[in-house]
Amino acid sequence: MTHCQELTEKLIRRKPAVQNMKEEYMIQCHDVCKSFGEKTALDHVSVDIPKGKIFGLLGPNGAGKTTLIRIINRITIPGSGTILFDGRPITREDVQKIGYLPEERGLYRKMKVGDQAMYFARLKGMGAREAASELKAWFEKFGIQSWWGKRVEELSKGMAQKVQFITTVVHKPSLLILDEPFSGFDPVNAQLIRNEILALKESGATIVLSTHNMESVEELCDNIALINKSHVVITGGVDEIRHKYGNNHIELVYTASSPVMPVKGVYSVLSDNDESGRHTAVIAVDEAADKTSVLKNLVGQPIIVNSYRELVPRMNDIFIKLVTEE
Questions:
Q1: With left for phi above 0 and alpha for psi between -120 and 50, is residue 228 left, alpha or beta?
Q2: Where are the domains of the chain?
Q3: How far apart, in whole angstroms, are the C-alpha atoms of residue 297 and residue 27?
Q4: Given phi > 0 = left and psi -120 to 50 = alpha, else beta, which region is 44?
Q5: 156: alpha, beta or left, given left = phi > 0 and alpha = psi -120 to 50?
Q6: Which of 51, 47, 87, 91 lies closest to 73 in space, CA to CA?
Q7: Which residue has the higher pLDDT, 11 or 304?
Q8: What is the CATH number of domain 25-242?
Q9: Which of 33, 31, 23, 51 lies closest to 208 in space, CA to CA?
Q10: pLDDT, tens only, 108-144
């Protein structure tokens, strides 16, 4: 059996994903509206945030993301609409189960780091002994034990953000809302925070990630909602959205003495770069065809397939397309 035939067989045998049972949601926003004077911040916004997932809340500056986050946190009251927390109207007590890292960081500069961390932990209902134990463990994990007795004003921006991240997650909230959590971090510490976000998801937390970093969205998020000009433009799974805005192009890397030939009604060859017999081609699949039929038509050609993958647009490109079209 040739390599092309093996790829074809795998595609044919691949079973569809098992459909999930009825999805459970940590947060459901229904027709939320909010205005500040004549300025409409949110216009009938509806968003469902699944439990145990990382949900990206995206949009340009001024789109309404922060207003929605503040409404979920009960910092701001909506003009109309409803917010459900775990299937019921959200209450003040539910806020204790939320960890919120705002984009505008807010540590008291004159307080010592350890005292301030303890203060925030106690505000979230932790006892003194439990708070001290959990905070010490987090400080050790981040390698910042020596900062405990320092004043916040002695810390760099990145150091202060590490402390604030710890105070956001220390009480083990069931819902985490992180607004630009990577801002100000160098690549090493940004990756550290990404790893911790994934670990928190694995432990069962639901995470709302508001960011302009589209690479982080692709790496971390399961679902997203894009808000622009106070309303939801698109919402859904990241992979689903990327494929929706794809153009049915395939990258084919193969070895051959001559270029691969197009097949009418199945695919056309848009480009083919030949480097000493190793080709990288971009082929466009015909609307009436599918990827299996492409592979079947490659079987009879004198080529060795090295790799075969669908080309889907990046979230950054989709973001720009949708926002500029709006």
A1: beta
A2: 25-242, 246-313
A3: 48
A4: left
A5: beta
A6: 91
A7: 304
A8: 3.40.50.300
A9: 51
A10: 888 999 999 999 999 999 999 999 999 999 999 999 9
- Tokens coding 75: 């910092």
Q: Which residues pair with 115 in a beta bridge?
A: none
- Between CA 198 and CA 73, with CA 133 as vertex, the angle to 5 degrees is 55
Residue-wise pLDDT for 206-233, tens only, equals 999 999 989 999 999 999 999 999 999 9
Residues 6+ apart with CB under 8 A from 70: 76
Collapsing DSSP states into helix, strand and coil, what is residue 299? helix
Residue 6 has pLDDT above 70, yes or no: no
Confidence of residue 173 (pLDDT cuts 50, 70, 90): very high
Are 40 and 187 spatial neighbours (Cβ–Cβ below 8 Å)?
no
Using CB atoms within 10 A of its CB, is residue 240 exposed (0-12), middle (13-18) or buried (19+)?
Answer: exposed
The residue assigned the tokens 């926003």 is 29
Structural contact between residues 177 and 73, judged by C-beta atoms closer than 8 angstroms: yes
